[in-house]
Write a structure and sequence with these properties.
The chain has twelve helices and eleven strands. With about 350 residues, it is an alpha/beta fold. It has a seven-stranded parallel β-sheet with strand order 3-2-1-4-5-6-10, sandwiched between helices. Strands 7-9 form a two-stranded parallel ribbon. Helix 5 packs across helix 9 and helix 7 (about 235-245) crosses helix 9. The protein is globular and about 75 Å long.
């Protein structure tokens, strides 16, 4: 059997990726920090604990060799070199990057969004040949570019498919943007406010669709970069409506013509300018067809979020989300805004 090693197997992308490869006939070793097993994996899947920064442990994981390494948690040139320095023992690789690497051609990208006049004006849709930010160690985006450059430079020794997902969604997310709508419904908030008239577009990537791309790329090794997104990104209004439908809840959405007013109207989906990716390269090179559209994937996400919120406060359950969006549920400010609006 073909042997595959999945690094980062315990997370949002790793779990469905292991399952997809195992179903496709791969002998899979699932490596993660905790070394745990997912209930949906076949019994044949092997598990290993791995500290990614431990080179000796990484070397032992690869062992005498494998046909494929899927690396979901790689950042920066050092992690790329962990793979390329073992190219003689690895048949091919699939490595996850991010759409945050893109720059608009005028120096603006994800890293400049908080700066004056820093919003990137991307072409719609974004293709894989769009210019990127420079490689480096300064930010998440620059480290992802350094990772990509190092891997593709070694393409003659280690064929690597680099995948660039957008707003990843599905169970086990450390940054579940759908929480904005799910928690409001659970809290009985029947009115919500969305900036930019709810028309924001930030291309989504279902974890199951990314896993399908991993499966396809594993079967067709090559050196390439591919966007890894859903077929069509829903607007913020459409996402809210889809969550309401799953939760069987009726709400009123108030639309702001412009940006959020302090904490009112802002959401993890509220981007002023669209981020939409072209998926024709993946269709052409891998025969990619999405397994799920956004609304189809929501029931399992909503169920998972409801369960987590019943167990923990949202800040404890999702600390990364709380750091990025500390005022996500500032109900007092919303109530004051509604009262002033009606006065």
């Amino acid at each position: 059997m073909r042997r595959a090693v999945v690094i980062g197997a315990g997370g949002q992308l790793g779990k469905p990726a292991v399952k997809a490869l195992a179903r496709d006939g791969w002998e899979v070793t699932a490596a993660s920090r905790g070394g745990g097993r997912d209930e949906n994996w076949p019994d044949e899947v092997r598990t290993r604990r791995l500290d990614r920064e431990d080179d000796a442990a990484f070397d032992a994981l690869i062992g005498d060799g494998c046909d494929l390494v899927v690396d979901i948690v790689a950042y920066g040139a050092r992690h790329a070199r962990q793979l390329t320095h073992r190219a003689d023992r690895i048949g091919s690789a699939v490595v996850v990057s991010s759409v945050s690497v893109y720059e608009d051609g005028t120096g603006r990208g994800f890293d400049t969004m908080g700066e004056p006049d820093g919003l990137p004006r991307y072409p719609v849709p974004l293709t894989e040949d769009q210019v990127t930010v420079p490689p480096g160690d300064a930010t998440y985006s620059t480290r992802k570019v350094a990772l990509e450059r190092e891997l593709l430079a070694a393409g003659d020794r280690l064929p690597t498919t680099v995948l660039r997902p957008g707003a990843i969604h599905g169970p086990c997310s450390p940054l579940p943007r759908e929480l904005y709508f799910v928690k409001r419904n659970l809290d009985g908030r029947r009115r919500r406010v969305l900036a930019f008239r709810g028309g924001s577009l930030f291309h989504t990537s279902a974890a199951r669709n990314v896993a399908e791309l991993i499966r396809l790329a594993a079967a067709r090794p090559g050196s390439r970069i591919l966007n890894a997104c859903d077929p069509r990104p829903p607007t913020a209004v459409e996402i809210g409506a889809a969550v309401d439908a799953v939760m069987e809840t009726e709400t009123e959405t108030v639309l702001l013509d412009g940006p959020a007013q302090a904490s009112v109207g802002g959401s993890p989906w509220s981007v002023e300018l669209p981020v939409v990716c072209d998926m024709s390269a993946a269709q052409r090179e891998l025969g990619y067809r999405p397994l799920v559209h956004y609304p189809d994937s929501l029931p399992e996400t909503v169920e998972w979020l409801v369960r987590r919120l019943s167990e923990q406060d949202w800040r404890e359950a999702f600390p990364a989300l709380a750091r990025v969006y500390p005022d996500l549920f500032d109900y007092a400010a919303e109530d004051a805004w509604f009262a002033a609006r009606q006065a």
